[in-house]
Model the fold of this input.
Amino acid sequence: MNVSTTVDQNALIALCAYYFAVNVACFGLFAWDKQSALLGRRRTPERTLLTLAFIGGTIGAVVAQRALRHKTMKEPFRTRLGLIVVSQAVICGAAMGLALWEIFWGGAPT
Done:
């Protein structure tokens, strides 16, 4: 095993750990906000929920939204979360396309 492979593996592990943590945190914050709504307590600002989704918690946000039936009809929150989902899907698709291009054709596309 060379140093480059170890660095790549460590970076991948760190990235996976980050996404796992931010998605769990996002789901938890949605659950907290839902409970706060039911109990009439102070709520989590929508900006906070959307920011957490934007920085990588999209899966946790969407799963929490569906599982907890929380903020499923609230506009413009629903539209903004949808835009985050679509933009991240496009970015991930483009990154995967570039990676596959490099693997199969060697080098960045021109």
